[in-house]
Specification:
By secondary structure, the chain is mostly beta strands. The chain is built from no helices and 4 strands. The structure holds zinc ion. This is Putative zinc binding domain-containing protein. It comes from Anaerocolumna jejuensis DSM 15929.
Length: about 60
């Protein structure tokens, strides 16, 4: 995957979580929590742009 804004391929994936505020958690920190939203998010580490947001199980929506 390539960032459409700065053309970097330095993209990290994670997900959104939080009861009172939305917080980004990278996949490698995932084991610290079990309270997650079923949304995958991809962020460019070069420019900070959110490249993609995707629901994990669209059939459950
Ligand atoms: Zn970028």
């Amino acid at each position: 995957m390539e960032c459409p804004f700065c053309k970097s391929d330095n993209i990290i994936s994670g997900y959104l979580m939080g009861a009172y505020k939305i917080r980004f958690i990278s996949n490698k920190d995932r084991h610290f929590t079990k309270d997650t939203y079923p949304v995958d998010i991809y962020v460019c580490k070069e420019c900070g742009s959110v490249v993609r947001i995707k629901v994990k199980n669209p059939e459950k929506l």
